[in-house]
């Protein structure tokens, strides 16, 4: 069967394989092949592999041998357990302590490259949107996560981070041009700011969580963009006046309460500004409340045009997490 593969010279093979493995992009169902002096590394997402490695990486479609089946947690249990991967951590959500322990043991015994297992011990809470975790395996709750060529260090017990939004973050980042002024009102550890800066934008990230801002600064350093990132620990409503009219692009990923910050967004917006506004609404009218709130805040000073109405994911029964890409023209 033909599968997408990264074609690489043998001398660069281990570095390439390691980078792809860290980003969770190797297709483990197939063997890495060697032919005519080249290595062929099967990948699950060619676009993500291209972004992670380099724009000029060669990706070809090639027939490779199926790998002997890896041992997965489901092979060691009577059921297929639910878990998320974040770097070398597995995240589970189990109320039953015995079942949580069994899943953790199976994850560690499997062939997954996992060192840490964390069980959700509370809902997301407080204005910093963090949750409690039960550490079932590993040394601590700090992880290194890689997505689309960026590396993020973060402590899950101290900051909010969702690996499920990687594709959405990449969708937005691909719209960013070099020399833009981009402002993230709720920046966290930098999952929007860092890829924006890597594309050449000058970025400001604000967050009320001091730990998140510390990680944002560290992640800017890790990704070589510290000269293009300003990280501010504060409520954005106290900062907006300092950057009045500065932004070409705004990100508002606080979907339960972003509408309360729209006045600050309008203050920040330049003469021609793109706003990425995230919301959670009932499926009967997922985009209407956000659009009405934006128009109420921005008109008549700005002409408001909705360029994209995008469903990010299902959030709860009959509720959708959505994004409005909105152009504000003064």
CATH superfamily of the largest domain: Vaccinia Virus protein VP39
Average pLDDT? 93
Strand content: 25-35%
- Share of residues in helices: 25-40%
Top CATH class of the largest domain: Alpha Beta
Task: Tell me about this structure.
It holds the Pfam family TRM5-TYW2_MTfase. Keywords: Cytoplasm, Methyltransferase, S-adenosyl-L-methionine, Transferase, tRNA processing. InterPro entries: MeTrfase_TRM5/TYW2, SAM-dependent_MTases_sf, TRM5-TYW2-like_MTfase, TRM5/TYW2-like_N, Trm5a/b_N. One of its GO terms (molecular function) is tRNA methyltransferase activity. The protein is an alpha/beta fold and 330 residues long. It has 3 domains: 2-63, 2-Layer Sandwich (Alpha-Beta Plaits), CATH 3.30.70.2580; 73-140, GMP Synthetase, Chain A, domain 3 (2-Layer Sandwich), CATH 3.30.300; 161-329, Vaccinia Virus protein VP39 (Rossmann fold), CATH 3.40.50. It is 25% helix and 33% strand. The protein has helices at residues 13-22, 46-53, 73-76, 97-109, 166-173, 193-198, 210-222, 236-239, 262-268, 288-298, and strands at residues 2-8, 33-35, 38-42, 58-63, 84-86, 89-92, 116-120, 133-137, 142-147, 150-155, 181-184, 202-207, 229-233, 247-252, 269-282, 303-316, 319-329. The strands form 4 sheets. A 7-stranded mixed β-sheet has the order 13-12-11-14-15-17-16. The longest helix is centred in the N-terminal third of the chain and has 13 residues, at 97-109. It is globular. The chain starts with a strand and ends with a strand. The relative contact order is 0.08.
């Amino acid at each position: 069967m033909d599968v997408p593969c990264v074609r690489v010279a043998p001398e660069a093979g281990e570095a390439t394989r390691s980078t792809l493995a860290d980003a969770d992009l190797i297709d483990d169902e197939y063997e890495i092949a060697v032919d005519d002096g080249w290595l062929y590394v099967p990948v699950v997402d060619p676009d993500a592999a291209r972004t992670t490695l380099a724009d000029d990486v060669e990706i070809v479609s090639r027939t490779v041998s199926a790998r002997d089946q890896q041992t997965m947690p489901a092979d060691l249990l009577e059921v297929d357990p639910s878990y998320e991967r974040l770097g070398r951590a597995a995240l589970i959500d189990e109320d039953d302590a015995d079942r949580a322990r069994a899943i953790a043991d199976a994850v560690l015994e499997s062939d997954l490259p996992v060192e840490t297992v964390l069980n959700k011990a509370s809902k997301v809470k407080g204005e910093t949107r963090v949750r409690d975790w039960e550490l079932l395996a590993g040394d601590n709750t700090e992880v290194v996560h890689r997505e689309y060529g960026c590396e993020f260090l973060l402590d899950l017990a101290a900051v909010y981070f969702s690996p499920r939004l990687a594709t959405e973050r990449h969708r937005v980042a691909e719209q960013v041009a070099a020399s833009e002024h981009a402002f993230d009102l709720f920046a966290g550890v930098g999952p929007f700011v860092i890829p924006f800066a890597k594309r050449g934008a000058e970025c400001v990230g604000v967050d009320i969580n001091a730990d998140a801002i510390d990680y944002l600064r560290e992640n800017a350093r890790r990704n070589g963009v510290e000269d293009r990132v300003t990280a501010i620990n504060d409520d954005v409503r106290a900062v907006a006046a300092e950057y009045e009219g500065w932004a070409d692009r705004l990100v508002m990923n606080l979907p339960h309460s972003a509408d309360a910050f729209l006045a600050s967004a309008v203050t920040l917006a330049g003469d021609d500004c793109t706003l990425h506004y995230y919301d959670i609404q009932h499926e009967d009218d997922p985009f209407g409340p956000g659009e009405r709130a934006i128009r109420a805040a921005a008109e008549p000073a700005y002409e408001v045009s909705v360029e994209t109405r995008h469903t990010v994911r299902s959030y709860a029964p009959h509720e959708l997490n959505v994004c409005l890409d909105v152009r504000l023209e003064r």
